[in-house]
Amino acid sequence: MTASPPSRRDVRHRLVDVLSGRRSREEVADWAAEWVMEAEPEVDDEVVWHGLTELAGMDLTVAPDVYLHSVDDLRAWLRRIEEAES
Questions:
Q1: What is the pTM of this model?
Q2: Residue 5 buriedness (CB in 10 A; 0-12 / 13-18 / 19+)
Q3: Contact 67, 73 (CB under 8 A)
């Protein structure tokens, strides 16, 4: 991938966007999956990598219209990113 690796801020913004309804889970999951599926991802920050792997699966469902990860899960991921940024 030729773009710079995402930052903690990028991951946080994507989560905020989903929680606020500005982006869909599917859109953000696709964005994160591009990084996670790279043969040699250039993501050195463990917090970012963990966030990307979570985001890549945020669109998984257990039933039609029922996501595996709840809104509370997404909020917990956001808190973890915010704590790591401070």
A1: 0.90
A2: middle
A3: no
- Residue 45 CB contacts under 8 Å (≥ 6 apart), including other chains: 5, 7, 8
Contacts of 86 by beta carbon, 8 Å cutoff, 6+ apart: none
SS3 66: strand
From first to last of the 86 residues of the chain, give the pLDDT tens digit: 558 889 999 999 999 999 999 999 999 999 999 999 987 888 999 999 999 999 999 999 999 999 999 999 999 999 999 999 87
Calpha distance 16→83 (Å, rounded): 15
Cα dist. 5→1, 10, 19, 34, 41 in Å?
9, 9, 23, 11, 8
